[in-house]
Structure formats: structure tokens, C-alpha cells
Amino acid sequence: AQTVTQSQPEMSVQEAETVTLSCTYDTSENNYYLFWYKQPPSRQMILVIRQEAYKQQNATENRFSVNFQKAAKSFSLKISDSQLGDTAMYFCAFRPLDSNYQLIWGAGTKLIIKP
Amino acid sequence: GAVVSQHPSWVICKSGTSVKIECRSLDFQATTMFWYRQFPKQSLMLMATSNEGSKATYEQGVEKDKFLINHASLTLSTLTVTSAHPEDSSFYICSASSGGAPRWGQPQHFGDGTRLSIL
Question: What's the whole-number average pLDDT of chain B?
Fold first, then answer.
């Protein structure tokens, strides 16, 4: 079975610091997609970043970047220059290539940015 | 683009009543929509996958007769919680994909969720 593991239930950092959230997954698939979603206190799910497994280059979106290690099945999210608005639950999700869009979710990491 | 509207955002009702939640894709056609349930401080739990014009596919353990899903058009899916009881109180979220083959990597786009409280 395919699984996604987020080993950090909660993290907190000072504003402007850099923080890395970990995510590992288990699959026998070779091609798939990985996502990070953010859920702030408003509970809206917001796509942060997406990575295609067949691309070796790590995805970046402004202050957000990933460290994708395919062999290790690791997909960590780095947030640079953290801001108070980054406080949220962060969910890592996996999707096989031909899965009818269905996602497999990690348990989430609660990130708190302190002023 | 890719906006999903979910309504209502919050509903309180008495035990035994039925509640309908709507999920609309506003600016794209969604052949597939998903319904999730989320308990406090937990991840999303997939309840069912809804394909336009066909019966929904329910996850194991989800009661089909309790949670009725209808996906009658490419822009609207509804979840009806029938004869709701306090244990059905939860946060329900829908999502939709903006079309194309799944292998194209299009992400799911989420509604803002519905907080359901059954008294």
C-alpha cells in the first residue's frame, strides 16, 4: 500500500527563519506527483508546491522550495524567510500518475511562526 | 482561475434532519470531484470520489445511504448527510480537478469547507 509519513506533528520557528518540513512516502510506482498543501486556521486548503517525480529539478515557488530525493522517497518542504502568515497545517500528498486524481495524504505538520 | 465554491460554510441543525452541501467549480469543468471529512487536528479522510454522470465510489467504511453524493453536472456535486446525528458533526471539504488526463499533473482545487454541527 502507498503511504505518506510526516514525522513532525508540530514545529515552531521565529519569524524570518528558515524551516524544513519532512515528508517520506512509500510506493512501488516510478512516476507520480507530490504535493504540499497548506491549511491555515481558516481551514482552506491551499496548494503550495507540486513536484513531478520524473523531473530531477526541485520545484520552487518564491519562498517555498522542495528537496526531492526519489531514491530515498523523501520530499521535504523548505520555507525561507518565514512569515507570520505561514502559520498553518502543512500536508504532504502523493498521487500516482494514473490515479483519477486521488491523493494519499500525510498526517500533517502544524507549523507555528512566532513573532 | 480554478475556483471551487462550497456552500454552506457552516450549518447547525437538529438530530434527525438531512443536510445538503454543494460543491461548485466556478470557472472550469470538473469531471471528478472528491469529498473529504476532516476531524480536528487530523488529516483529510477521503469519503468518496464523484464522477459526473455516474455513481460515486465510496471508500471502505463510508455508509452510502448516510452520505448521498450526486454529481449531476460538470460543475456541481452535492453531498447529503441523511438523518444526521451528533457523530456526523465534522468539517467536510470538497475538491475538484480542472480536467485533463490525471497524468498531466493537475492538482486538486479545494472548496473552503463546511462545518457541520448536529445538535
Answer: 90
